[in-house]
Design goal:
By secondary structure, the chain is an alpha/beta fold. It has helices at residues 14-25, 38-46, 64-73, 98-126, 138-141, 147-167, 192-201, 210-221, and strands spanning 5-9, 29-34, 53-58, 80-83, 129-134, 172-179, 232-235. Keywords: Oxidoreductase.
Amino acid sequence: MNRKRCLILGASGGIGEAVVHRVIEDGYAAAVQYFTNEDKIRTIQQGIPEDQWAGSFQADLSTKEGLQAFFRVLPPEWDAVVFAGGHMYSGLFQDMKEEDMDALYYVHVKSLWMTARHVLPYMIQQKQGNIAVVSSIFGTEGASMEVAYSSVKGAQNTFVKGLAQELAPSHIRVNAVAPGLIQTKMNGHLTLEDLQALENDIPMGRAGTPEEVADAVGFLLSRSSRYVTGQILHVNGGWC
């Protein structure tokens, strides 16, 4: 059986792991990229049928050198790519160090550009393909104390919209999911009081789960969304 192949970047994070399991359920063979959490990747692999495991790639996407090393080993033949990785920076913008800005730029923007450019020749040749980006509500709304993070997520959103128009004639779809408050380690810095206050602002009254974000990604990769491209799908419980 020739399965479609999906590459998930940031697979060791909460949302990334949920996306891996979702694409496996949907019949893909999955490959994963991670930075440091090799134990999590081994655990993920143990739960995946052997014929649906397409490999793992350790790579630091926060530097130019890390990206170059990644592309030296990454095959270009993928039917779908999901960008689910990255980190945030919380603090006053004027207190940010330049190296923190550079790391956000490389992880969220430059790695997206370069990976897309790496895989697109194959997708264009095949006249089909899917690219999905896990962005953020802050990419459309912005957030105090997360100014630089908001800006790189906004860049992801406009990249999706522009690239989708360019690739539509080649039958390649490009979309994004913009989660709101999700139960992941990224929000582990919040106090219980802060978390409750945020949940009180969400019309559905709770944080979302990684699986709910992964379901949205699964929809965007599926035939059910075959006429959907260039869209930012908000998964936020009505929080905006």
